[in-house]
Design a protein that fits this description.
Blueprint: H1 4-12, E1 26-27, E2 32-34, H2 41-47, E3 50-55, E4 59-63, E5 67-70, E6 97-101, E7 106-109, H3 117-121, E8 123-127, H4 131-136, E9 140-142, E10 146-157, E11 164-170, E12 193-198, E13 206-215, E14 221-224, E15 236-239, E16 245-251, E17 256-259, E18 264-267, E19 269-270, E20 278-282, H5 302-310, H6 315-324, H7 328-336, H8 340-349, H9 353-365
Parallel strand pairs: 1-19
Antiparallel strand pairs: 2-13, 3-6, 3-8, 4-5, 5-9, 6-7, 7-11, 8-10, 10-11, 12-13, 12-15, 13-14, 14-20, 15-16, 16-20, 17-18
Length: 368
Amino acid sequence: MKNLVEVAVMTLCLSPMVQAATPKVIYGDDNRIFAEDSNNETYKKWAASTAVQILAKDIEVLKEGESYRVNPGKLQDSFANVCADEDFSQVANAGNCSGFLVGEDLLVTAGHCMASQEACDNAKWAFNYQNDVISASDNVLEAKEVYSCKTIINQELNSFSKNDFALIQLDRKVEGREPLKVRTQGKVELGTELVVIGHPSGLPTIIADGAWVRSNDHDFFFKANTDTFGGNSGSAVFNAETGVVEGILVRGEKDYEYDAAAGCNRPKLCENDECRGEDITRITVIPELAPGMTPEAPAPSPVQMYQVWVQSVTAQQLYYLWYMQQSTTEIATMMAEQTLVQTYQVWVSTLDAQTLYVLWYTNIYLAN
C-alpha cells in the first residue's frame, strides 16, 4: 500500500502552503561581507542592533553570568555542505534565524522562526555575533550580549496571505544598542535600493547591499533581489537611502546547487532580474509598530484550504473519507467477507489528487 505521504506529495507542486523554511540565493554579484569589514559606518551602526537566534543545542553557559560558548562548527561541515573553496565555508555558523531590535526589549523576527512559546523558550538571541569577535574569543560571547525570549507579543504565519512575522519581548532591556527606525506609513517604492543585515546560513553578521525592490504589488510582502540564504529569515531589510526598516526577510529561492564533480554545494547564482526573488514581509503589517496599517487578509479559496489540509491529513482521516463513500450494503458485504481493510488498501494505492480533492470538497468543505 502506498504510504499516505506519497498521496500528499502528489499535490505539493500546487500548494501555496507555508514556505517558511524556503531558502535564498545570490543575485548578480555576491555582495555579502562581514559587518566589521564594511566601510560604511551607517551600515555598521544598523548591524549593531541586529541579533542572531541560536538554538539551545548550539549554545551553553561557559561561566554563569559572564560568558557563553557557541557551537564552533563550520559552514562546510554543516547541513549546507558548502564546497571548501567557497567564501565563508570555513566560518562558524551557529545561527538559526535573524532578528532586530525595535524597542528597549522588543525584537522582530520571522513568524516561522518563533512559531510557539516552546520555540521562544528554547533559543537565545545574541547581539555582537560577529566574525572578528567569535574568532578572537574561540566562539565565546559575553553574557551581557545574550538574551532569552520572555514572551511572544504577536506572531503570524499565514498560509494564505503569506504574512510572516513575530514580535517578541526579551528577558531584559538591551543595553548599549539603539532600536531601529521602522516604516509606519505607506509602503516602499518599486526600485528602492535595499540593504539586508542578518545571518545567512547561520554565519556571523553579514551585510549585503546592492539590492532593490523588484515587485511591490502584494499587500503583505514585496520581492527583492537580496543576496540572502536560510538563516537570513528574520533579517532587517533597510531602505538604503532613508535608513528605515522596510521589511523582514522571510522566503526566497533555493540556497545551493550540488556540484557533482566536487561532491559539495555551491550558492545558486541568478541574474538580478531572474529567479523567483526574495520575499520580504512589510514591517507595516505589525500593528504594534504601525497601528492601522495591517491589511485585511483575503479569505482563502477552497483550493487553498484543501492544499493546507492535504499536507496534514492523517491515515485515519483518509480512511474515514473513503468509508463515507461506501453504501451500507457495500460495507456490510465487505465486513462479511472480511475484505473491508483490504479493499481500502487497494483503493488508496491508486488514489490520485483529483479524487482526493473531490472527497475533501464533498465531505469536509461542503459539510462545514
